[in-house]
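Support case: user asked for a sample of complex input and structure output to validate their parser. Sending the pair below.
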Amino acid sequence: MLNGIKPIAAKSMAERVEASLREYFAKGNFKPGDPLPTELELAAALGVSRNVVREALSRFKMLGIIETKKKTGMVISNPDIVGTFQKVLTPEIMDEATLQDLFELRLVLELGIADLLFIHKTPKDIEELEDIVAREVKGDNFRINNEIAFHGKLYEMTGNETMKQFQTLLLPVFGYVMKLENKKYVSGEITHKDLVRILKKGTVQEFKDGMASHLQPHVDRLRQKK
Amino acid sequence: MLNGIKPIAAKSMAERVEASLREYFAKGNFKPGDPLPTELELAAALGVSRNVVREALSRFKMLGIIETKKKTGMVISNPDIVGTFQKVLTPEIMDEATLQDLFELRLVLELGIADLLFIHKTPKDIEELEDIVAREVKGDNFRINNEIAFHGKLYEMTGNETMKQFQTLLLPVFGYVMKLENKKYVSGEITHKDLVRILKKGTVQEFKDGMASHLQPHVDRLRQKK
DNA sequence: TTTAGTAGTTATGTTCTACATTTTAAAAGT
DNA sequence: ACTTTTAAAATGTAGAACATAACTACTAAA
């Protein structure tokens, strides 16, 4: 008969202080540049040692949510989203299931990216893509670096900064999964060159179909795996 | 003529220790569950105080990269990717451009999700979707909660845990953007009900087209905005 | 009057010590 | 052989002390 019994406060002080501060930040309507109380004041207000407060603050510093200068104190700042992501996405540490998840995530992104591309594409973008494809033909095909250059450029073209940064984050994961499963990179019937041609003169729908065909082998592998 | 001049080591000890540990983790080929040296040993090896080590470790704890138990010590574990994202994505702090970026990201995800859905769908999933749609018709249409239930279920169906968590993360952003721009939720010609029907009896291609149509108003808005 | 320099103050950065807490493992007792 | 007790080893927390950097104000020299 232990229903309803829950641990009082299983979490560590640092964790609780982190939560408190997060709430404090949210409710305080802070803008970047706004000053914060000193460590000592926070410690006193929260009833914990300065040490614990510093551990919590250290976390926010890592996320780029606060910045510190001696004597001046601490101020709120803009969090570094991508930098933070990079810190978590260490392929060496993640288990295979998570890597697989991220691989699928990347696949989904590329399958759905067509509309954004056609909204934002410029002649200059097309030129760059053509350059990339030209280099591919000269060198050896299907190399992972070509993949990175080509698909990376696509993400960049979306004009969406977050998505672009996302791509750079997902790249190592992509390579990792490829290395694990196939030892080499595969491509569908539609090549990069074809995709560029469609992007230049074709329609959105044609590009969607083209990209689907290009990525088909990967999707097929998922289907088999299931 | 100050080119090439850079600060010697502006970073704090905690930051440097964090970097060292990250390198140590990467090179050590650690798998989840592998034990780590004690705080004292790390402090000694790095030549810093235990306090600094603890601040760095605290950061890894927040990211879910390490877990600690008393006496047992610390072990490597699977980083909590989405949880970390949530910690950085405090809407109060994000600027509007980032919110817009995330909105587009969500759009792209849903436009590219079709293949995964058809790979993983089960009769039970379809039933649940039909239930959700049925409740929609009874209540008022186009409510944001219906959107959440419906699209959320789609993410869940992918069988991709990371993607599913991503959805819950992106939801508030979606609502935020909606509130900012339209004050109400809009839908294309294809309704949720139509989508469920296609998912049940149609083809992947039909579903792709259907989803594109369903989300068309949003894509159009992006096009205008540009 | 302006400038340079100097001292003092304050908040973060770092170290050290001590003790609490929890959990494992050994030791002791039945 | 089994249970209980005790000890240890690791993290968790606290507090004090000093180092360091940066801002302030005052002072002295040009």
